[in-house]
Specification:
- By secondary structure, this protein is α+β, with helices and mostly antiparallel strands.
- It contains 7 helices and 17 strands.
- Strands 8, 9, 10, 11, 12, 13, 14, 15 and 16 form a 9-stranded mixed β-sheet that branches.
- The two termini are about 20 Å apart.
- The relative contact order is 0.15.
Amino acid sequence: MSLNLWFDGRIGPQDQLAAPLTTHAMHYGTAVFEGIRSYATPDGAAVFRLPEHLERMRKGAEAFGAAFDTNEATAAVIAVLRSNHHRDAYVRPLLWYGTGSLGLDVAPLSRHLMVASMPWAPHLGDKPVRLTVSPFRRNRAEAMPPLKLSGAYVNSILAKREAGSRGYDDALFIDDAGFVVECSGVNVFLVKDGNVVAVDHPDALPGITRDTVVSLANATSRPVTLEELLEADEVFVTGTSAELLPVAALDRRTYGASPVANELRTRYLRIVRGGSPAHAHWLTTV
């Protein structure tokens, strides 16, 4: 069954909507996107932290010099979820530069916005994950701002592909000084003596799930070395698609039970499904 998309102001079947082969974003990655989750709640579908996601997308569009209307995007997200009758779903807004030139100046180009929704399973599964230190380095913030700019994700794809070729679930980026950055698409936390620490690094994406868990766990946010991560009692990762998952192993270092991570995961999943009135302000009802 064909799903519907919201595309430049109208809803239509995805198999009837297309962009030209000369679309600038196809050639240069000149696009910005978000990954957003909708969940079934007792009151119907609800989108988790939608304003925060769209504000981050606005910043990405601003980096490209593209106008982005968060009110328009909010209405589009709700419209496409309703059109597809989705409750548990992944929502993908994408703003991109279209036609007008194949040069590097984006000013003459057309601008387009699409929003899709689709059924989704967490991309790292639901079991503790195995990480490996990547031979790749993360895009440096001085060269590429840590936002969801489409072209920047080639870096993540290369690292995740290399990690997968060696039998691991995901790649862990560290910098030249041995500090942890993030994984290919998730932020990193550690637990030591019951204290939760969120890895802080200027090259890492400011994750919205990360921010959520920092709030729930009253976590400290600071730089973390690879050595400290290896000595932690627990390690876990967070992201919109992955939600919250314990880490089973980092290269040869294996971790045991993850009581803190599992308790936070349970709380998080309860909140996104409308089970915590104190956090209802994080949900946008569809």
